[in-house]
User: Which sequence fits this backbone?
């Protein structure tokens, strides 16, 4: 145990005994960050949370310049970030590839079963007109305006053309699965949008997720990304326990508690940690 | 209303709001202090060397046209601070506020009655001494007004920092927006306004203390 | 380095065409700004003229409008967005609110600043209230009024980027999108385009100001700049007579932040209100 | 004719600026309101054109109660000139002057034509019309202010310290100009000043106000200097009032003495026991040769004893006395209208004239 | 003693403000620089304490070239008073006056004590020390300005139109005050004004400048009025110079006449053919009863003919002449130092005295 203690001390490293958990600027990530923080606290680690930082690029820069210690991440996107040329898509391949591509100084822990994938979504009407999968979407893309985050075209425009032969009439920047995107689809400003599988908006609006038979979007399991020397072993163990307890349904429920029931991420996280004895 | 009370009812939320408020205060006011320290020498230069005027005011104008968000993000790239460091916001707002204050400082110094300055010179003041003990105190009414405008607009500008995660109360806006939850936004807006009003009142009080002499004349209608 | 990225981004023809191209973004940005400043002028100028003319409630009104400067545009726009459910309305309202204080203050100060003797003479020669307002107070208020408008325009141009945050276009787009992926080239290009647009609009307004400010007032300004022997002898130890050289160059710049002087005059409220009965 | 009947003005803050003023300003002359600062001169003046409304009492202009008139219309019929001229900085001088005619519905051409005439009348060159007020000197601005007030040819002119912002020399010029104009125009002018010198110089009647807006004395200037109603007025008209009052004592017929004269360039002749006056070709006095002075050759300008002030025959005795007192010879030099030598007077002779002009005061003549 | 030796000041824009000035200001007296606007008076003054540096030439203060001194240190030894007083609005009156002592390193207590003394010296009540300048009248501000300049007891005092911003009555008071102070202090004072009246009233020597910064005449005031060096000076000293020069003619022994007097509250007695002077209990003149006037019962203040100006015995003859000229009876009332009736003079008597005082000008006395 003296080892663990010294490990903890070591881990706190540059942050002066502090582990800083960061999150991107959307609900799910914020909830996950709070869960990590709660778990770490229970493991005796001194934690602060810095939620709502923004895009991945900023978050990772922040990890690298030691502003942050841990962030909840997504395997597929993270892998893609570290290795643009990568083509693997299944859960295990992605996780394996990710572990090997994480730059030195950073590390990922166990991935959770819970997944929050990118998914293309259309309204019920559009679906009823015969678009229920990306394969069906492909030939009709010309009819549709797409809405998604600013970086989507760079990442996926070529890919979707290659796999499904889809070229949208127009690609419009909305936001990363936030209210703007949802409103745009609802108003009919756009017909196809990129959301995330745990989004509570999909059910609430009767939107239809398009199947992705060719696995264009890679697996996106929740995984803690951290500074390798930033967290004690006890802390790491706690984070792994979180991953073990997280399922996709559970995650969707947590998100909905915050987004729909307007509970706070902290409360939701505390309840989760308590319920799962972490 | 209900939703606001519910929102505010949560202890965690209260703590978060308080933290944000404190952050907001120092993010917005520290730059004002720094800017005054910078703007006084700069303003003095434009007052003293009139040919600097066009140039320095021009630069100040251009600085003012740069979107605040851009400065928040560019500053770490330029001065090498950590990307999430509050220093970035402080530095950016310091630049803005300095740009805003240079002119009032110059105007205020210009407005110090020439005969008072001449009298001070004739009594044997050295230039720096004269600046500190005669010209600056007399510039306080105009300068104070500039500081008030600067601090109020800073208090409103800080929230843009929320887009990069360092926005004081502004984080309540992005949070509320992403959750379609007006309560935090409303609370954030109201707190920002209140903060501005309180700070403004305080500045007025400070200014009044420093300018008792200016009101002395009003009593006798001078 | 950053600027090299920026030039690369700007040099890419793909960034210049289509609905997401620079011309379209500039057009959108310009439109928001022009509408907002026009609307704010339509509100602020008559209001400022009126309180300036009657002298009643002026300080109160300008004081109040000054405190709405503290209204964070981002908060206002997101709140309005949620209430109104999207559209350009929220952004425009946010920008109008931003633009009103300087315009109102400039107009009010402009009218208040008119030499008391001049107003008195106008009354004494039998001008009615309206004639005085139109023929004397308004023309004499134009320099400060225009400073107010120019200052409002600068702020609006810089702030109109919030439109992008609520899913609209304009030059905030490259700024926000660049920020999401830390694409400095795109980001800086956005910032520089905004700054350029601001400078350009200010120049246009400066020309407009030359047109609307009566020639006689410019003569006054010039006469004031030419240091009278009294001013001059106040700085006698000054070697090299800087007075003359300074006077020539800064007419352009003078107006732009002249606003500050105008409002400051008000905030400092050195002028006594009241005075003779109107 | 302007009548104040029991006029009182109490401002909202309780200041009584004018207190029970009864005064009749006669038509066709200049009446001056004078008094220390804050004594209600401006307030009294501004009640005439309803820039200020009286608290009680009545003001009649040509028998008409001013309250019956619509203020803007009333004001268009009354010229108003103020200290800083109050010119519109955004209009050319010509358009400034044309303002009231335009307000009264004249055509632009006619108004401008009239304005040009008026500029000439007040002695300004026509080119100035195209300038802006900021391009004029203080004195020129004041003239434009007067021209503007005269533009609609109003029978009444109110002037509130119109010349106090210009320097003494220019000021005297403007006063002369005003007197010359008034000779031509015969307006009813109410002129406010706090300078008693200006008041007695310009006014045919002078109303002296004291603090609290009370009329202290209302009389012709000579009367004011000779018989101040009380200590306040006596103090206000100041020292030298005896001497200054000579400005109002006409010389009548003065029997002039003659002295020996010599022209510049001529030989001085033999030394005498008398002062010799030196004249130039136009017979303008240039200086004196003292008694018993010997001049080699022709008299030149160089060696002369400078003369005193000159007295123009027919003007008030003040000048005659000063000429005598300032002359090194004790002989005041009298000149004709063209400045040519006419004779000399001694101080003693002037005193005799003053004595003769002095009214034999009787009880009946006592001041009010 | 301040010496200007061939001093020229040409400003950067080419204006020659002072041209080859040679002038010696004597120690311990008031020397006045006078001249029209822009003639270089201020510039000359400011070169003494190096607020302006001469283009060429040398200025010596007590034999020391001013260029050898460190300017701030030099200035602390030279008092300076300007038109608008130039008081620091943000400091109390007392602290304003204490400024130079504090600059020179005195302790705060000692400086304040000195300041309080000086306020008393210039005739201001001690309570005023706690006020701010804006709470004082213009005249009081000027006094504070003078006190401040005197604070470090400098041997030299420069005053640049110190009284021109206050109104004429207050101004005269300030001038008297200055003369009284100078009697006590014997400073070397250089006083700039553009008002020739002020110049001759205050100065023991007057330097008249003409445009272009040229010295036109440098003489005692009486000399200046009596013998202007040229037409420019004659024009500048203006009309009335004969009368004004009487300010410099001492009365010597005046044999006073007496008139019948009556005290207020006493019965007037039988009517006579003479004017009767009415006095109050302190024997201060209150007015006249005209010849043959009948007064029922006791004489009251009410019905009197107001008197003329009063002449204080021993002061220059200007006052005596004015008293005679302004008196309704033709008899100038002469009072003693306490204002009590002393006798009467006629204008004729005054003329005799003037005549007697007139120097018999000879060729030798010409010019300056
Ligand atoms: N609008 C006002 N409200 C209150 N008091 C006023 C107002 N206008 C003038 N007064 C006061 O009324 C008195 C008379 O003022 P007025 O301007 O008529 O004096 P004045 O004789 O013209 O003085 P000055 O020579 O200084 O111009 C003063 O005490 C002044 O302070
Ligand atoms: N700093 C300066 N630069 C250029 N010219 C100057 C400067 N100061 C004064 N002058 C000019 O020098 C001349 C003399 O100025 P100065 O102020 O000495 O005149 P003055 O006799 O004091 O006049 P006034 O009675 O108006 O105060 C004027 O023509 C003035 O315009
Ligand atoms: Mg007045
Ligand atoms: Mg001067």
Assistant:
């Amino acid at each position: 145990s003296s080892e663990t203690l010294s490990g903890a001390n070591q881990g706190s490293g540059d942050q002066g005994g502090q582990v800083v958990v960061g999150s991107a600027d959307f609900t799910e990530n914020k909830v996950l960050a709070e869960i990590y923080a709660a778990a770490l606290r229970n493991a005796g680690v001194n934690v602060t949370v810095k939620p709502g930082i923004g895009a991945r690029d900023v978050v990772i820069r922040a990890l690298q310049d030691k502003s942050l210690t841990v962030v909840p991440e997504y395997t597929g996107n993270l892998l893609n970030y570290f290795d643009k040329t990568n083509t693997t898509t299944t859960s295990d391949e992605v996780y394996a590839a990710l572990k090997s591509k994480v730059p030195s100084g950073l590390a990922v822990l166990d991935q959770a079963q819970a997944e929050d994938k990118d998914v293309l979504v259309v309204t019920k009407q559009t679906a009823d007109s015969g678009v229920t999968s990306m394969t069906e979407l492909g030939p009709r893309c010309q009819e549709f305006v797409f809405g998604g985050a600013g970086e989507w075209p760079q990442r996926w425009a070529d890919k979707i053309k290659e796999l499904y032969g889809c070229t949208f009439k127009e690609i419009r920047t909305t936001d990363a699965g936030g209210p703007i995107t949802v409103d745009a689809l609802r108003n009919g400003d756009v017909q196809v949008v990129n959301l995330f599988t745990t989004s509570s908006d999909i059910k609430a609006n009767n939107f239809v997720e398009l199947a992705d038979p060719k696995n264009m979007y890679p697996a996106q399991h929740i995984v803690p990304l951290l500074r390798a020397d930033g967290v004690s072993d006890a802390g790491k163990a706690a984070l792994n326990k979180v991953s073990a307890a997280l399922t996709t349904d559970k995650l969707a429920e947590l998100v909905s508690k915050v987004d729909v029931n307007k509970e706070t991420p902290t409360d939701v996280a505390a309840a989760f940690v308590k319920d799962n004895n972490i | 209303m209900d939703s606001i009370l519910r929102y505010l009812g949560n202890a965690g939320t209260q703590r978060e709001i308080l933290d944000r408020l404190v952050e907001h205060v120092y993010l917005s006011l520290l730059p004002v202090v720094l800017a005054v320290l910078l703007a006084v020498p700069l303003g003095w230069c434009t007052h003293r060397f009139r040919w600097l005027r066009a140039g320095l005011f021009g630069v100040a104008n251009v600085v003012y046209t740069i979107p605040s968000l851009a400065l928040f993000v560019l500053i770490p790239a330029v001065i090498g601070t950590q990307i999430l460091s509050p220093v970035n916001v402080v530095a950016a707002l310091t630049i803005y506020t300095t740009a805003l204050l240079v002119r009032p400082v110059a105007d205020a110094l210009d407005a110090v009655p020439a005969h008072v300055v001449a009298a001070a010179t004739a009594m044997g003041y050295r230039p720096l001494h004269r600046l500190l003990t005669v010209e600056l105190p007399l510039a306080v009414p105009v300068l104070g007004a500039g500081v008030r405008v600067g601090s109020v607009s800073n208090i409103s500008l800080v929230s843009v920092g929320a887009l990069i995660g360092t926005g004081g109360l502004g984080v309540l806006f992005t949070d509320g927006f992403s959750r379609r939850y007006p309560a935090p936004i409303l609370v954030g807006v109201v707190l920002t306004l209140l903060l501005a009003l309180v700070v403004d009142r305080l500045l007025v009080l400070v200014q009044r203390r420093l300018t008792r002499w200016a009101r002395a004349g009003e009593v006798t209608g001078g | 380095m950053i600027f090299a990225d920026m030039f690369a981004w700007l040099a890419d023809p793909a960034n210049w065409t289509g609905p997401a191209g620079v011309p379209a973004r500039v057009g959108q940005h310009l439109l928001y700004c022009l509408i907002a400043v026009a609307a704010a002028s339509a509100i602020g100028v008559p209001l400022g003229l009126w309180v300036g003319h009657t002298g009643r409630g002026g300080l109160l009104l300008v004081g109040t409008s000054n405190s709405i400067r503290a209204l964070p545009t981002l908060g206002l726009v997101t709140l309005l967005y949620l209430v109104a459910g999207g559209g350009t309305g929220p952004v425009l309202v946010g920008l109008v609110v931003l633009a009103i204080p300087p315009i109102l203050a400039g107009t009010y100060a402009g009218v208040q600043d008119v030499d008391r003797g001049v107003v008195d003479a106008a009354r004494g020669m039998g001008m009615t209230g309206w004639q005085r307002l139109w023929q004397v107070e308004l023309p004499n208020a134009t320099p400060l009024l225009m400073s107010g408008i120019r200052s409002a325009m600068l702020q609006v141009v810089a702030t109109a980027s919030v439109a992008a945050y609520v899913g609209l276009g304009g030059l905030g787009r490259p700024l926000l999108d660049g920020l999401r992926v830390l694409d400095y080239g795109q980001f800086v290009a956005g910032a520089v385009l905004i700054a350029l647009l601001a400078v350009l609009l200010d120049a246009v307004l400066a020309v407009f100001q030359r047109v609307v400010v009566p020639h006689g007032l410019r003569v006054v300004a010039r006469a004031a700049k030419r240091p009278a022997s009294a001013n001059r002898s106040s700085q006698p130890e000054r070697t090299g007579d800087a007075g003359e050289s300074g006077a020539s160059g800064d007419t352009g710049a003078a107006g732009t932040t002249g606003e500050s002087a105008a409002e400051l005059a008000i905030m400092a409220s050195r002028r006594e209100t009241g005075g003779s009965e109107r | 004719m302007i009548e104040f009947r029991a006029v009182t003005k109490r401002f909202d803050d309780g200041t009584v600026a004018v207190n029970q003023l009864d005064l009749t300003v006669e038509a066709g002359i200049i009446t001056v309101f004078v008094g220390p600062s804050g004594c209600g001169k401006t307030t009294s003046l501004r009640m005439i054109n309803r820039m200020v409304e009286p608290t009680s009492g009545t003001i009649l202009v040509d028998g008409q109660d001013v309250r019956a008139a619509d203020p803007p219309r009333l004001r268009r019929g009354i010229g108003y000139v103020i200290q800083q001229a109050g010119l519109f900085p955004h209009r050319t001088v010509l358009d400034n002057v044309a303002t009231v005619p335009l307000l009264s519905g004249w055509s632009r051409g006619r108004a401008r034509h009239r304005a040009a005439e008026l500029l000439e009348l007040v002695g300004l060159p026509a080119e100035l019309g195209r300038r802006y007020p900021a391009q004029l000197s203080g004195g020129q601005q004041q003239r434009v202010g007067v021209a503007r007030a005269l533009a609609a040819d109003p029978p009444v002119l109110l002037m509130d310290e119109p010349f106090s912002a210009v320097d003494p020399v220019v000021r005297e010029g403007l006063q002369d100009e005003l007197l010359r104009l008034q000779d031509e125009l015969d307006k009813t002018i109410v002129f406010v000043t706090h300078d008693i010198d200006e008041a007695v110089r310009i006014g045919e009647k002078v109303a002296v106000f004291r603090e609290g807006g009370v009329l202290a004395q209302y009389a012709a200037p000579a009367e004011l200097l000779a018989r101040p109603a009380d200590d306040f007025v006596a103090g206000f008209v100041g020292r030298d009032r005896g001497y200054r009052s000579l400005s109002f004592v006409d010389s009548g017929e003065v029997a002039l003495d003659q002295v020996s004269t010599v022209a510049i360039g001529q030989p001085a002749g033999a030394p005498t026991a008398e002062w010799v006056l030196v004249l130039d070709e136009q017979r303008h006095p240039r200086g004196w040769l003292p008694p018993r002075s010997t001049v080699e050759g022709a008299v030149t300008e160089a060696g002369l004893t400078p003369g005193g002030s000159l007295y123009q025959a027919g003007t008030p005795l003040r000048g005659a006395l000063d000429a005598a007192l300032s002359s090194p010879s004790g002989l005041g030099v009298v000149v004709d209208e063209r400045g040519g030598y006419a004779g000399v007077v001694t101080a003693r002779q002037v005193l005799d004239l003053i004595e003769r002009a002095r009214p034999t005061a009787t009880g009946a003549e006592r001041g009010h």
Remarks:
- Chain C touches chain D at residues 115, 117-118, 120-128, 131, 136, 139-140, 214-217, 219-220, 222-223, 276-277 (CB under 8 Å).
- Confidence is low (pLDDT under 50) at residues 226-278 of chain C.
